[in-house]
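User: Could you check the structure of this?
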Amino acid sequence: MRAMPLVLAACLLSGCVPTADFTELRDDVRELQSDNKKLKQTEAELRKRLEAADRNQLPATTLKRLDAVEAALTDLKTRQQGIDQKLGAVITQLEESAHQPESLSGRSEDPVTKTPPKPAPPPAAAGKPSPPAVFENQAVLTPTASFNLAYNDYLKGNYDLAVAGFESFLRQFPSTSLAAHAQYWIGESYANKREYRSAVDAYERVVTNHPKSDKVPAALYKAGAGYAELGDLAKARSLFKRVIEEYSQSDEAARAKQRLAELR
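Assistant: Sure, the predicted structure tokens are below.
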């Protein structure tokens, strides 16, 4: 992953990468690295506490915080995969552009990456509409940028803003691969506010609306934990058992077994 940004940087200097594309990817990578560093530090601190004491004797808030950090790290891995895919797509585009035949004037026909000709462009009626300027593209938030804005609010503990941001994301980008993650982090935001009914509703929407998402095991487990907080132990047990039966190889299955043992 580290090598590809260097390739893009070199291409940017030579004028072969659209500035908006590079800037977005660069910012995504930097933000991902920063978030990952913070979460790793928090995880290390919590694991030291686990090693120094019996897990069953630790405060419930510490265990919940560790669960949240582990879930956040899993989410970061998914975001990293998305950035890797975007980087790969840009590299592929560059390779294809390098092999395109030049136009009759001796220039590539890509209107964004190449310097425009000195003569004025033909009128709109005589040819294709002019492509949008780079600054116009930058004014439009991409799905990743929109998600990251809300996620940053979550990491800062601004849970109301995070919920509003993720809900806005879902209205704008309901069909993207990050939609299930946005719904999940709405649940996490409510859980951190101890609004467990709203949290459970959000987690259950992950399962209902995104049944094939990799966030389903975590959503089921967290919904079970939410029902336990609400005092509905029968529902909590049911969801923990479902995690164990349907996602036996997941990290959440191991946690669900522990929670079931605690509820007996």
